[in-house]
Amino acid sequence: MNQNRYKLLIVALIVQLFCSVNVLAKSSVWKVSKSGDHFYLGGTFHLLAPDDHPLPEEFLEAYADAQEIIFETDLVASGSPVFQAKMMGAMMYGDERTLSSELEEQTYSRLKEYMDAQHLPISNFEGFRPWGVSLVITMHEYSKLGMNPEYGVETYFGQLARADQKLIQSLESPDQQLEFLKSLGTIGGDNNIDYTLRDLATVAETIEELKVAWRTGDLSMLENSRSVVELKEKFPEVYEALLITRNNNWMKQLLTLFDDNAIEIVLVGAMHLVGEGGLINQLQSQGFTVEQLD
After folding, report:
1. CA–CA separation, 95 vs 123, rounded Å?
2. pLDDT score at 12
3. SS3 content of the chain, % helix, strand, coil (to 5)
4. Mean pLDDT of all residues in the chain?
5. CA distance 206 to 162
6. Dihedrals φ, ψ of 171, to 5°?
7. Which helix H or strand E contains 213, and what residues bound it?
8. What is the pLDDT of residues 79-99, one digit of tens each?
9. CA–CA separation, 181 vs 243, rounded Å?
10. Rounded distance, CA 231 to CA 291, Å?
């Protein structure tokens, strides 16, 4: 076999391999059907990096078929200065308590060591509740990875829907979402900080694994990720508040989507789809046909 023919054979095999992978690949978008009507349910990443675009084409296909788009919450309202101030207020004590007075000395020392390395003066966070600090430093690490809300699935489709003048709705208000977020405060302050610092040590690897699971619609991989397993086992009340309770509330609204003539695409965090209490299982239990797009 001459060299040119050998190269062509290699190219052909590579093309065949990638074509086969694409045919077999799943996505994090499902078509939910019953009695001739349907809507789409997409699991999202709220924060992404520029390199995560373009998004999986199944999202774009579902969006193109839909007249309405439904998010977890009102994106415009949640980004307003008024709500941001309310969010900041919830993350802070507002009384005589301080971060240093509420954390054990050893925990505070570990947090200070981390913050010093990140050039974040811990003195600026004295008025913050531990769960508020955890959110801030988690967002800080995500930002270092290039991950920001402006590249997230919701922001992308929110901008697209406004440009296309599609009807935009939400499953809960920003205030409702904030109340659920406050459940993080039920985790003891020291546990909250320890848990966060440990997770941030491997955040890059964890995020890459979760992104692979998200892009391929691998719910089992998402459900069995360390972060989800530990949240469910160690902090069941938070898992219940952030995921299960909200899922149950949203299901009441999803069931009404079959009472109109519109086709909707519903976008929620991918973690809301997994497990027994996830939206996929609940919809199937209600007798709907749920097909994963590929």
Report:
1. 16
2. 39
3. 65, 10, 25
4. 91
5. 33
6. -90, -25
7. helix 203-215
8. 999 999 999 999 999 999 999
9. 10
10. 28
- What are the phi and psi torsion angles at 292 (to 5°)? -80, 125
pLDDT in tens, 20-61: 333 345 899 999 999 889 999 999 999 999 999 999 999 999
Structural tokens at position 23: 């045919």
Token pair in block for residue 125: 């966070």
Distance CA 148, CA 155 (A): 10
Q: Hey, how many other C-beta atoms are within 10 angstroms of the C-beta on 75?
A: 20
Show the tokens assigned to 27. 């996505």
Burial class of 132 by CB neighbour count within 10 A (0 to 12, 13 to 18, 19+): buried
Enter the tokens of residue 123: 């003195």
Extract the tokens encoding 188. Answer: 């003891």
CA distance 42 to 172: 17
DSSP for 269-294, please give it: EGGGGSSTTSHHHHHHHTT-EEEE--
Report whether pLDDT(4) > 70.
Answer: no
Determine the Cα–Cα distance for residues 222 and 32; give it in Å rounded to an integer: 20
Domain boundaries, the chain: 24-292
Structure tokens at 75: 């994106």
CA angle (106, 107, 110) in 5-degree steps: 90
Radius of gyration of the chain (CA): 22
Q: How far apart are CA 81 and CA 86, in angstroms?
A: 9
